[in-house]
Amino acid sequence: MTKREWRFLKVFTNVSVLIFIMLTVASQLYVLATDGVVKTPQGLTFVQTGSFKTHYEAWGKQSSTQIVLIHGAFESTYYFEPLAHILSQKYHVEAYDIKGFGYTERVAPYSVAADSQQLFDFLNARKIKHPILVGHSLGAGVVAQFLLDYPRTAAGYVFLDGDGLSTPRAGSNLFAHLPDPYITAAYRFVTSTDVIVPSVFKFTCGPTCPALTHEQLANIKAPFLLPDSEKALFQLAGSPIAGVSLPDLLKLKKSTIPRTVIFGADDQEFAPETPQQIADYIGAPAPTLIPGAGHISMWAQPQLVGQALLRFIKGA
């Protein structure tokens, strides 16, 4: 190595070390600056499910037909509000936060088996018998496991923008290798700014999705700002998406429980042929495709999704 090359290597190494130190210090300072106690809002409703409390919302008067909505990954009961107001004009509707999301207590383990148990405990605690289960995205996986664990409990079920299958989560290895304070700083930056979250939501929601108001954005972001949310979400992000294996999913075809599949026609999370494949796997009729809706079809087109659900419930 020549003297010139040696000097270049020395300068490059010193600059790299300096940049690393600056980034580390800046990340640590950002983490310290954003440390704070964000409390759970007042007035929320909870029910005891096993060893922890589950947050839930209820709409509509009591009716003989009860609908339970199960949200997807990184979502909460809030995502169902537009749809719930439509369904509750005729039926009693409830939704709850899956363990690790929303305002439900963060208590490990985070697995589809634990999610199925939570759903069972929630139904018992709320005295809900033979409900129509609507699982959105990851929620479809929870419903699938629940149907295998408790095959005579549901009166009907819906896979909404979800295939019910367990799959590796994209980018999960990143969380395993990115150390603190970088991962904490990145998490807090993403969840605290008003640019990244609305952009991701809009892309996922679909082309006809209305822009989020300031209040809606605040409600979507709020659960991520709770002090115990970071650890839980890092654990969830590093694990496969909750769901069942394909052989187990095929077992649902033998059941006589009414079922249907509803997908946003512009859902970018799945291949175009997925809705029909899933309907074939579980023995459902041809899927309903919601025009103009993406992966969050119940927010993009709540009226159309509501109409599809009401038709299914009437037939079931």
Describe this structure in words.
The protein has about 325 residues and is of the alpha/beta class. The chain has a domain at about 45-170 and about 240-315: Alpha/Beta hydrolase fold, catalytic domain (Rossmann fold, 3-Layer(aba) Sandwich), CATH 3.40.50. The protein contains 13 helices and 8 strands. It has helices at about 5-35, 80-85, 110-125, 140-150, 170-175, 180-190, 195-205, 215-220, 230-235, 245-250, 275-280, 295-300, 300-315, and strands at about 45-50, 50-60, 65-70, 90-95, 130-135, 155-160, 260-265, 290. Strands 1-2-4-3-5-6-7-8 form an 8-stranded mixed beta sheet, with helices on both faces. Helix 2 (about 80-85) links the parallel strand 3 and strand 4. Helix 1 (about 5-35) packs across helix 6 (about 180-190), helix 2 (about 80-85) crosses helix 13 and helix 3 (about 110-125) packs across helix 4. The chain is globular. The termini are far apart. The model is unreliable at about 15-35 (pLDDT under 50).
In the CATH hierarchy, what is the architecture of the domain at 45-169 and 238-315 at level 2? Answer: 3-Layer(aba) Sandwich
The CATH homologous superfamily of the domain at 45-169 and 238-315 is called Alpha/Beta hydrolase fold, catalytic domain
Structural class, by secondary structure, is alpha/beta
The total of beta strands comes to: 8
Q: How large a portion of the residues is in β-strands, by DSSP E?
A: 5-15%
As a percent range, the share of helical residues equals 40-55%
Strand order in the sheet with the most strands: 1-2-4-3-5-6-7-8
Subunit arrangement of the protein: single chain
Average pLDDT for all residues? 85
* Low-pLDDT segments, ≥5 res: 14-34
Order of helices and strands: HEEEHEHEHEHHHHHHEHEHH
The number of helical elements comes to: 13
Main sheet makeup = 8 strands, mixed
The CATH class of the domain at 45-169 and 238-315, by name, is Alpha Beta
> Could you please say which CATH topology of the domain at 45-169 and 238-315 applies here?
Rossmann fold
CA-atom Rg in angstroms: 22 Å
